[in-house]
Amino acid sequence: MLATIPRPVYSGRIMKTRRVGFYALALWLGFFAAGAQIARADAAASTNRHSLWKANGRHCTLYLLGSIHFLKPENYPLPPEIERAFTNSQTVVFETDIGIMEKPEAIMGKLMAKAMLPPGETLQGQLSPATYRSVSNYFAASGLPLEAFAQFKPGMVAMTIEAAELKKLGFEADQGLDVHFFRLATQQHKTIVPLETIDFQLDLFTELSKEEGELFVKTTLDEIETTRKELGDLVTAWGSGDAAGTEKVLNASMKDAPGLFKRLLTDRNVSWMPKLQELLAGDKNVIVIVGAGHLVGKEGVVELLRAKGVKMVQE
């Protein structure tokens, strides 16, 4: 299964786990895609709605766009409604500072410092014998040198597995929705605003408890095959603007790991509210591009804003 959060290491950015990882997958910077090429066709055939919401402030319009962080070239061009929302916005908001993430040399030292276990500790010592054996088998079958990860924290190893699986499926972070719009925003000199720091996002996956690290790695390995199908379902729901379908897939994660789900998703949604309300009270149109999992459900950003009296309309 795949997960989600900032998106650092190993070919650029990553992460995952079944119910748990899946959840993460839907987080670290949104959620990954497997079978996303089907999403656009399904969207056109079934509905004209998208993972896009709009709210009108007194002097501006605020758009919320659910992001998929790993895509393929054939997923473009995007639906005109999404492109139009971006064009109409002077300010573009992302989960984190993608500019730094576009420069691996700028964060590699920080990433490695956070990814490594303390001196004297090893990955094998952080995992149960059965889970470590599964990791060893996976790395051997994938041709990856496990010894190179002997002192990495479990969360980073799970992310490495996720990255390897995404690469097998042909998906790349450079084709992700957030990177696509970040580059356009830079070219068009739009104001770019990050909601979280790189340090904060890295800590989400490098500061797990021993129990959380074990669960994250184990579920990632256990659900590799299942994830491929679930990701396809998730991306199809995203492409057709099916918020209920997106939330249904993601909610399965919460049942198996409510604490991790809260940490990775709902706590962050709440923490974004003051900034989103500030932007809505401003005088410049804004598009907020975050992982699609953040927007749906009773504790999603859309419902949190509605609870504060904001009228949200799905486009």
Write structural notes for this entry:
The chain is an alpha/beta fold and about 325 residues long. It has one domain (about 20-315). Helix content is about 55%, strand content about 10%. It has helices at about 20-25, 35-45, 80-85, 100, 105-115, 125, 130-140, 155-170, 175-185, 200-205, 210-220, 225-240, 245-255, 260-280, 300-305, and strands at about 50-55, 60-65, 90-95, 190-195, 285-290, 315. The radius of gyration is 19 Å and the shape is globular.
Alpha-beta content class? alpha/beta
Report the sheet with the most strands, covering strand number, pairing sense and barrel closure.
Answer: 6 strands, mixed
Low-confidence stretches: 1-46
Give the count of structural domains.
1
Mean pLDDT: 79
Estimated radius of gyration: 19 Å
In the sheet with the most strands, the strands line up as 4-3-5-2-1-6
Number of strands: 6
The number of helical runs is 15
Distance between the first and last residues' Cα: 30 Å
Indicate the percent of residues in helices: 40-55%
Mass-distribution shape: globular
Percent of residues in β-strands: 5-15%
Order of helices and strands: HHEEHEHHHHHHEHHHHHEHE
